Amino acid sequence: MIHTKTFIATLVAGFALASASQACEVTLRSAETHPDGYPTVVGVKAMGKMLEQKTNGKYCVEVFHSAQLGEEKDTIEQTQFGVIDLDRVSLGPFNNIIEVTQIPSLPYIFRSVDHMHKVLDGPIGQEILAEFANHDLIGLAFYDAGSRSFYNSQKPIKSMDDLKGMKIRVMQSDVFVDMVNAVGGNATPMPYGEVYSSIQTGVIDGAENNWPSYDTSGHFEVAKYYTLDQHLMVPEVLVMSKKTWEKLSADEQKAVMESAKASVAAQRASWAAKEKVSEDKVRAAGSQIITDIDKGPFIEAMKPVYAKYVKSPKLKSLVERIQATK
């Protein structure tokens, strides 16, 4: 269910936007949890500019960044209901909704960023995006989110033994919960916006995320130990409400899809630059970066996770095809 306060905030924002944006005939509302200037925000804004050009100013996109429309779980539901038009979300929260999204969210499924791009830019990526249509959403494009690693407030993590018993925040995804539990941690699902205070007050010991999120969230201020185990490369996904999509003409749908695909290059460029800036910032702030780690035991520990989630012939084939992509 949509939280009442979030629903009202969305409607109020929509009315305010309608009066403020008279230049376009239609302004599409896009939800985003990250702050303004974050690479995913850059990507969606680039998509909006291209859409405006392609439709001769008929359509604009307004990005409500910094979780103005709610946390990801809420915005997914609102987008399904058509209250929000566009939503940029990590693939993780979709794991419990769209089964096939569990595969790109598996630990160590991608060998490198280049491997991930080849998979997501090809037919496999399109097959995954197509699945969203069965859940009142239209999958438009994948964005980069880098590699995710563990960070905490207690001590350097150099092995699985160091993780034992640590309360680690994860996305509200069964795959993420099982991943952390498999390496000895105590997985604690919670919304992204609650992580800082939870680490600060000792509710949890740490979390796992990429360089820019570790930086822009301020988590590095309360969790000084960052271990580059790079266990996940979970892509972000840009989706449109199916209700909004079905109101568009065929030409307008084409313009939306083309604009979304074209925005990927802008988002990736912004991501690469942001990763470097964020890494330099947290290192300068005194975060202890642990790079001397043997990933072998971590990868081995993931076998039960794969066994649990990769059961059907369809999913097994998908894993094989991803692993076979060169």
Can you give a write-up of this model?
The protein has 326 residues and is of the alpha/beta class. It has 15 helices and eleven strands. The strands form three sheets. The protein has a five-stranded mixed beta sheet with strand order 2-1-3-10-4, with helices on both faces. A four-stranded mixed beta sheet has the order 8-5-9-11. Helix 2 packs antiparallel against helix 12 (250-284). The longest helix is centred in the last third of the chain and has 35 residues, at 250-284.
Descriptive terms for the model:
single chain, D-Maltodextrin-Binding Protein, domain 2, 4-stranded mixed β-sheet, 11 strands
Shape summary? globular
CATH topology of the largest domain: D-Maltodextrin-Binding Protein, domain 2
CATH architecture descriptor name of the largest domain: 3-Layer(aba) Sandwich
What is the radius of gyration computed over CA atoms, rounded to a whole number of angstroms? 19 Å
